[in-house]
Every structure is written in C-alpha cells, then in structure tokens.
Amino acid sequence: MVTRLALLGAGRIGKVHAKAIAEDKRAKLVAVADAFPEAANAIASAAGCAVRTIDEIEADKDIDAVVICTPTNTHADLIERFAKAGKAIFCEKPIDLDVARARACLETVRQTGAKVMLGFNRRFDPHFQAVRREIDAGTIGKVEMVTITSRDPGAPPAEYIKVSGGIFRDMTIHDFDMARFLLGEEIETVVATGSVLVDPKIGELGDYDSASLILTTKSGRQAVISNSRRASYGYDQRIEVHGSLGAVSAENQRPVSIEVATKDGYTRPPLHDFFMTRYTAAYAAEISAFIDSLEKGTAPSPSAEDGLIALALADAALKSAKENKVVRVEL
Amino acid sequence: MVTRLALLGAGRIGKVHAKAIAEDKRAKLVAVADAFPEAANAIASAAGCAVRTIDEIEADKDIDAVVICTPTNTHADLIERFAKAGKAIFCEKPIDLDVARARACLETVRQTGAKVMLGFNRRFDPHFQAVRREIDAGTIGKVEMVTITSRDPGAPPAEYIKVSGGIFRDMTIHDFDMARFLLGEEIETVVATGSVLVDPKIGELGDYDSASLILTTKSGRQAVISNSRRASYGYDQRIEVHGSLGAVSAENQRPVSIEVATKDGYTRPPLHDFFMTRYTAAYAAEISAFIDSLEKGTAPSPSAEDGLIALALADAALKSAKENKVVRVEL
Amino acid sequence: MVTRLALLGAGRIGKVHAKAIAEDKRAKLVAVADAFPEAANAIASAAGCAVRTIDEIEADKDIDAVVICTPTNTHADLIERFAKAGKAIFCEKPIDLDVARARACLETVRQTGAKVMLGFNRRFDPHFQAVRREIDAGTIGKVEMVTITSRDPGAPPAEYIKVSGGIFRDMTIHDFDMARFLLGEEIETVVATGSVLVDPKIGELGDYDSASLILTTKSGRQAVISNSRRASYGYDQRIEVHGSLGAVSAENQRPVSIEVATKDGYTRPPLHDFFMTRYTAAYAAEISAFIDSLEKGTAPSPSAEDGLIALALADAALKSAKENKVVRVEL
Amino acid sequence: MVTRLALLGAGRIGKVHAKAIAEDKRAKLVAVADAFPEAANAIASAAGCAVRTIDEIEADKDIDAVVICTPTNTHADLIERFAKAGKAIFCEKPIDLDVARARACLETVRQTGAKVMLGFNRRFDPHFQAVRREIDAGTIGKVEMVTITSRDPGAPPAEYIKVSGGIFRDMTIHDFDMARFLLGEEIETVVATGSVLVDPKIGELGDYDSASLILTTKSGRQAVISNSRRASYGYDQRIEVHGSLGAVSAENQRPVSIEVATKDGYTRPPLHDFFMTRYTAAYAAEISAFIDSLEKGTAPSPSAEDGLIALALADAALKSAKENKVVRVEL
C-alpha cells in the first residue's frame, strides 16, 4: 500500500519535501496547493501530480496525509481542519507563535485522534542521530550536560524578523527541541540572555540577535545553548553531550572536506552557508520517518506535543531575557 | 532537448547510473538491456522505461547515447558496435584488460568520430574536484609530488581475482587516472612493488594484494601510490598534492562524523566500507558530466584515450613488479 | 641584574615554580621556606639555595621578590606582610576565599605600592595566548561571545572540597579570569546553575559538582562557562571566541597525538589527566612574565585586582546558584 | 652513581645535548671541547663545567662517556679513538658519509667492545614512540606498509649541499632508520627516484631536492618515503603504519594548536619550521636513553650498526636513483 500525500505550500521547503516524497517508493504525491499557481504548477509538473485547492484536498477521500508548508500563521488552522478531515498531518514547526493558540490546536488534535508530526528536521540529521544512538547505547553513561551551538550565517531581513516571533521562537526553538532530544528528561527552568550585537535594527524591532541560555531538568541535568544571527564562517551547528562515562559530539559539516596548506597555515573551507544544504539528508529522513509511522501505524515523532513544549520553552526564554530572571517552565 | 539514453547492463553499477539519469532533467532513460530479464525489468519498472535487446537499441534512431555497464570482456566490442551505430557512449572502465585490444577499439572510435567517455568516477568526487580546483587556481604553485592512498575494506573472492586482470588493472587503474588528473603532465616511468600479505590465495593466482608504486613525469614530478586489498578501518581513499607554494589534500570520508570520548580516548567511526556509498556523489556527477558534454557538444572527459593510457600504465606496473625494474611507459 | 627570589611553600606547585626560576637566567632562587623541613630541603638541594624561615626571608634585604605557594588561608596575610617589607610578590590564586578579606588585603597593597601578580596560570598557556593575539590583531572583529569548557578529570576528595570555598571559588575562578582575559569588557551580570551529578558527598557538603554559567558585559557581550568535576576522557580545557568577523578557538591538548584506526574506528588518546602536565608551559611562562615585569619595572599582570574581581564573580555565581536568580556583580 | 659526560663540539646540537644532560639528575657534564673557544666557553659557563681539549678528555679517567657533536668528517675518527680509550660514546649521525669508512669504524668498535649509540633522534619523539608502542602491543596486527613523509621547510645553502653527502645520506637517512624502526624486518631492496624541482643549483651540484622511495623486506613488507627540500607550510614529519588489523599514524606538530574561522575558512597555524623545535622532546629523551643504558649496563640503541645500515640504505638509494633501477641492499 502506497501512502498518498498532498502538499500544502509550494515554497522553498515545500519543494524539498516534494522531492523527498518522490524518492520514497512507499509514498506518492497526488496533489499540491498554493496561493501562487506558478509555484504549485512547478512542483506539480516535476512530481507528476495535480494542482488542487485546499478545499479539494480536504474533501478528497483518496488522500491519506498532508504535508503543511504554508506560512506559520496558517499552521494551527490547517492542523485543526485536516485533523477533523481524518488526514494524517506533517506540519512544519511551529504550530503557532502563540502558545495558547498552539495549546488549543493540540486539544483539537487530541479529540480527533489525528496523527500529527512536527517538522523538527534536525532530529533526523544522520550525525545527530548517531549522537543519540551513542547515548541510547550507554556509551557515555548518564547524560549530565548538553551543549548546543547554533549560529546562522547571516541575519534575516527586518521584514522577516518582524513576523518571526523573535529569536527564541524562530531560531532557538530548534535548539530547545534538540536539548530535549538529548537530555532524556523534561526541562524545568530556563534562563536566557539576549543581546543586540549584530544589527541595531534587530534591536529596534524589540528582538535580540545573540543569545545564551541555560536549561535545567529535575535531576539537575544542564543544557547550554549559544545562538547568533551571524557567523562569518558558515552555518555553525554543533552538539555535544557530556555524561558520567564520557562524551559524544557532532562536528560541523562543510560542502567539501579538503585542506590547503601554505605558508599561512592549514585551511579547510567554510561550513555550509545555508540550512537546506546543511540538512539535506535530515529533510529526506524526516519525511521518510513520517511515511514510516503511517505505514506501521505507530505514533509519529516528534509529535504536536513536542512542538507545544518547544514553544513554551521559547516563551519562558523570552520572559527570562526580558525580566532578567530564571523562569520555571509552565507546560 | 532531452538526451535519450539506453542502459546496457542492469547490475549494481547499472542501477546507480539509472538513478543518476532519472534525477537529471536534461536526460531520459528510454531502454535497458540485460542478459537477465529480472535485472532489466527491475530497472525498467523503477525508471519507467522499456526493456530491449542490444540489437534493438543499436537500431533505434531515437536513442542518442548508451551507458555500458556490462562485463569487462564485452566493453571493447560494444564500444565499437555503438560507435559505428552513431551513438554517444559512456563506458565503465576498463575498455579491455588487453591493451592491444583497447588500442584497436580506440582506432575504431577515432574512425567513427564517436564520442566516448570512460567511467573513472573518482574524478567527479566533490572533494577530489575541489583539490583539482585549488591546483588550477595556483594556490599550491607548481605541482611537484602527488600521494595517493587507496585501500579496499576487504579482498574480493578468488573468482573475481581470476578475471580481474590483477591488482594493477583492476584497482590501481583508478589511481593511475587520478595521478594523471592531478600531475598535469604525462607519466614516463613506473616502478611497482607487489607483495602478498593479505591472502595467500591471491598469490597462488599470480596476483598481488599489496602494492607500492612510484610514477615520474618528464620534468621530474613524482606520484606515489599505496594499495592494499584490505583495510580494517574502511575504504581508505586519500589524495595529497605537494607543490612549490603549498599542498592540498582530501581526507577520508565516513558515513557520520561524530566523536565519542571515553577513558579509552576519542573515537570517530570507521570510514565508508563500500565504494558505492563512498562515491555516491561522484557517480551522479559523472553521468551529469556526460549528459552535459552531449548537450553542449563538447568532448567528453575522461576520454577513451584516458582509458587506454591508464591501461598502459597498469601493464607497465605489472612488468615492473614481475621483473623488478623501472619501466618506461609505451603509449 | 639578576632578580633574587624566595619561595614560600615547597609543595607541588612550589616545585613547579622553583624549576621555572632555575631555567630563567634573569632570576635566582636564593631561599625557600616551608613548615615541613623535608619539603624545603628537597627544593633547596635541587635548586642550590638556602632553607630559611619566613621571618628571615622578610628581613633579608637581598631578596627582591617572593613567590607565595602556601595554603590559601595564609595568602592575604603573607601578601600584606611582604608588601610592607617592600618585596615584589607573586601569589598563587586566590588572595583569600573571603572577598572582604581580599579587598582589605588589596587596600594594604595599594598603600604600600607593592607589585603583586596573581597566579592565573592559564593566561600564559601558549594556545590561549595565541587566541588572545588573534583577538588583539582584529582577525575575528569585535568580540561577541566567549565559550569556556573546563572539566576536571576527577573530583577531589571530600577533605579538599570542605576547604575549597566551593566549585565557583575553587574551579570556576580560573574561568572567570579567562572570560575577562578574552571578553575585553568588565562583567556586569552572572547567572549560575549548580547541580550535584557526579558525587552525592559533594552535595552533602553544600557544594556543586556540575555548573553552567552565563556572564554578560555592559555592551551585551556574553560568556558561557561549563564546569564539571569529572571527565572520563581527561582534563577538558577549551576556549572559543566568536566575533563579528569570525571565531578563534583553542583545542584540547593530549600527551601524544597519534591516531589508531581499527574496525572499531579512529581513536586518539585521552587528554592530559592532570593540570600540571596540561599547563607545564603556562607555569614556566607565568614566572617568566613576573620576572619580566620586575626587570622592566612594568605593572605585573594579572594583578591583585584581577584576583579580587575573579573572587567577586565567584561570590556572585554562588549567590546566583543558591537563590536561583541573575546577580549583578558588585565590585 | 652519576654518569660523567664530556661534550665534543659546542655548536647548535651540542647546546641541545648540554641542556638535556643538565636536566637529567643521573648525569653530569664535566667538560666541553670545541675548536672555537667562545662556543665551548658559552656551554661551560651555562653548565658549570670545564673547557678541555679532546686530548685531555680522552685521558681523563673520571669521564665515563662522550657525546660527539663535531662535524661529520670527524665522527669515525673520534668514535675509534674514544672506543679505544674505554669511553661510552653517543655520536650524532652519520658515522661517516663513506660506508667503507663506517664499516671499518664499526670493526674497531666491535674489537674494543665499546658502547656506541647513534643519534637517530626521531626514534625518541614521543609521538613516534607511541606509534611503535601500538605496533608492539599488536593493536594493528602484523605490519604491512609503512608511509613516511619527511619534508624540510626550506633547502639548505649550496655550501651545505656540497658536503652533505646528498639528499639520501643527509635527509633520507633519518627516514631509513625510521622505516627500520617501524617495519620490524630488515630491508632487502630499495628503489629511489630523485628530481630537481626546488632549486636548479642543487641539481648543478649533482644532488636531488625531491625524492620518492620504496623499500621492501624479505616477507614483502613495504615502506614508502616521500622527501622534499621545501615545504612552505613547515617541517612536515608524518609516519603511518598499516597492518593486518588496522593502522596507526602520527600527525604533524605545530607550535600552537588554535584554529581561526573566518569567511575564508578554518585555519590552523603552519607547522614547526625548524627541526630543533619540532624534536625538542626527542633530543632530551634521546640523551636520557643513553644515560639509562649506561646506568643499567644495557646495549645502547640505536646502535652503531643501525648507523651503518642506514648509510648502506642511502648508498643503495643513490645507486637506484642514478642508474634508474631497483637495488638489492648489501650489508
């Protein structure tokens, strides 16, 4: 049995998912919807599928699942609508920028019993997966301290910053999820420091561009997150886990791994400069995991609840940074 | 205009090329031929193309080019046949195990004016390509010494060794081509040392399993090649080029790049253990380069002549190892 | 002119300094004092110097400077005493575990005009020095975020923990100084999280064994410190500085840098397992810098004031961890 | 009992050995001789020892051993003279540039029963020692292939080249000894390729500046050596041993191990640019091993015979390069 999928949103990330679906023999993309016909047509012709409206997709009994890649402010509505329509749902993060709205959406999901998977793609990065496998195998003993470094090559334009929900909801949210993926315990407290060091315009919009955070769990495990909106050397994405018996880390990735030696030293090329090239394998594995869960009837992971918790952590971080205090997470 | 291709040989490497063609929008696989119908059918159904005989493909005016992945002993015949039929040809290395046969084949190719590209896939590895770009950019000055380390994870079975043409024609041939790709000058002398250190059965078949070689060019540039049929730590594939202003090297590749630290030290995982996973990107780029040359009407590279030269170097190496002397290459 | 030095305290670290003095041609160790005659004799015979009492050293007009390596609770008294006696002073950190006592000591130092250098040895590590040189050279632009990882191979015995002043005054104090060395701005706020993950006995003594800290400066620069009393893989000492134009980091050090490749992967040996072997070069360079400042008549650095500030930061960290809040540093 | 040593030759390397002796408590430098009184005086005053003539040292019953650091053309004479005088001898490599002279010298040594150690300092490098320990521990199984890369930062002046004995006797000689140290079997054949790529003046003097060599042992083990008189990136000194169960390698060393990341990539500093800073630890350990062997009455290693064999290998290499053939080593 082939899983039949429809794609909602034919933008940059929609294209990535369409390609991943095309390469998975267990799935078939049957329809794509987008407000811009050209975008939808481009994917439709490449994937050999139909262009439809969201209403048509909702009504189509032959569609098993939808992949939501529309703008953030439509996520919660679409999740609710397709949950009620009995479709399985893969939705890009976040559910919503407002935690109350996300909570309400989750309540609807629970009532319908719909299967919802949230697009925290980094969990599927092969290197981060390998880190997690070592933890699960007990190689480093009990997890004690997690360190996440996550820096973007460059700051997004002011227009994006305005609607992004701020650095914690837009950027750190991935790191909150990664911290939870690695800590093995729920986070109880968050303290965050935010600064404007990269671009004063970001500060004028009430946001930060540089942030450091400490998260703690009930038993005292600690995670440290370091974020910046700028890294001249590329897309800086490192994780490190220290435990009672050792540590495990995943290094940065670069497009080619050569080294040039001259009188000035030994130089390796900069890192990937774009999240899509850095996480190419992760995006494909993510969709594959969604299809897998549908095929096997297992609960998709990360779940909508994982999405809600990451959002609550982002809210706690914002409160911490604004009020300059340690904040207990309310779930 | 889409390039229409037929695949001759539906084995392991045939599948890889079929996939690469499917992902290139400028090309279309229209037919596949194989002595085993199941193999041909598998590719045909995945690629949505027809199963045909070699005769049919030869006669088909709508086929622009063939990709030859059949057994080595059929390569020269097929190249000649399809050159005469006016098709462009991509052929897996080698042209033939016998250099005289390869030379005769090349003569036919020249007479027909057919476009022939030889499958030295390693030239298309993104890391090795980046090494070459640094050389071309002059970063390391004039090339002086090339070092190639090339070791297989494990020795092939005796049946394969028997028909392989020996370590120099089967394994070192890739390194000869890589040395030429990097040296920037034709090789004049070869000295090779062969030993049986891995498996006595290989020695009983008259072959070596461990080899070291020095190649020199007219101006005195030197290349050193180190080969072994066994490397417990994976598929060892490194190149290094030393020049008047510096050096450039390409490191080994591994499936995941994590590091585990314990009381016993810091451990990274073993290398890729299979040439197909190691050179995945290279195989795709290779077919893309073939299609590119057909589209643009440029000469495909590496050419059939490159294939002949690598074979002549292998013959020189074998003579050197057997007679224990430095051998001047006859082209 | 040769600087004539006396050593107060002939323990482990005293021996290190005696050796450094012996290797510096500009200085001469003329006397050593210790409560244990055997310890003093051992250094005296190795260095060819006299054993004296502290009183004798204080009274000796021919001694230019003292190197204080006695127990922590004697530091402030000895600094005051030798400041009044007109000697230059090198003192192991900290001045005192009590910030008020340290402040009073500093006041005496100021009144006497004595030259005092505090033993923050890590500033003299050649790798960390090189990091600082890159910052000073402007290579990474404006400093924005500092990351310090500092983990001991194993926890000290309970007897030591009791008198250590706690993890922040004993262990993090080095990292506070390093953060100041690298940030280029004074620290204004500290938030610290402390946990007991390594050894419950440490918790019973009211101390922590695992800590994460965020420090901020006036302009919003941030430093993150990660501490643990245990690291199975050795003495983990890394620094990383991220700036507007790039980043610079110093890697961990190991006794030998080999790599073993087997079917289980590629393994490098564990790190140094002892601070004295890790910082051998730093200890020698530190004493050399002290002698240098005496010879040239420049102010020794790090100063007694640097010692006081690090202590104040430790106090702020302890308060932060105990009261679970962000603390503004009082200087 | 303290070993009393005299130093013959107070040049650059003599100073290094004098310092090593000063730091070893089991030994005492009692005299130094040099044709240049200033050089001898400098060491004498630093070490607190006497300046004497070679005749005086030869006659002095209180001197146990001599360390010969005089010009190469005096080595064989001095070894013979002090062997007859009943002294233990440490001599810098080589015994002589002429293998017949070296062989005659060795005969005298054998007749006197004198203890002679040859200064192949690289055997004592802590990293190379660690490589050897892994071989001895069986970690990589049976040794199969050794790879030695040995490149100088820059070519010596023509005056030095003239008296050096040529690249094989001057530079590769260290690599021959290292190959023997690692192969675990005597070398039977040598093939060498020499080119002039760095400096035409070197060619005019009849020497090479770039060389590649293959050495083989009876059982077929292979060693490859790559030499150049120039490496813009520093003093390139790497070894790698491949065996039946794995491989072990020692990386290049640099003065500081930092990494700078900018938009242009990740850069580590160049390597050491001088053999004395690269091999500081090796020189100290070498003298310590000599003193050790005298103290314990064991045979010093590497021996005078090791020196002779390395020289014979150099002769074989020169013959191979000149006559362009594989040469069987005559011992």
TrEMBL record, chains A, B, C, D:
- For this protein, the Enzyme Commission number is 1.1.1.18
Q: Keywords assigned by UniProt?
A: Oxidoreductase
A Pfam family matched in the record:
GFO_IDH_MocA_C
What are the coiled-coil residue ranges? none
Domain Gfo/Idh/MocA-like oxidoreductase N-terminal per the UniProt entry, residue ranges: 4-120
What is its EC class?
Answer: oxidoreductase
Is Cell membrane among the key words of this record? Answer: no
Question: Any keyword Ribosomal protein?
Answer: no
Cite a single GO MF annotation: nucleotide binding
Q: Where is the Gfo/Idh/MocA-like oxidoreductase C-terminal domain?
A: 133-328
Family annotation (PANTHER family) = BINDING ROSSMANN FOLD OXIDOREDUCTASE, PUTATIVE (AFU_ORTHOLOGUE AFUA_2G10240)-RELATED (PTHR42840:SF3), NAD(P)-BINDING ROSSMANN-FOLD SUPERFAMILY PROTEIN-RELATED (PTHR42840)
Q: Which NCBIfam families match?
A: myo_inos_iolG (TIGR04380)
What family name appears in the similarity comment?
A: Belongs to the Gfo/Idh/MocA family.
Stated name of the protein: Inositol 2-dehydrogenase
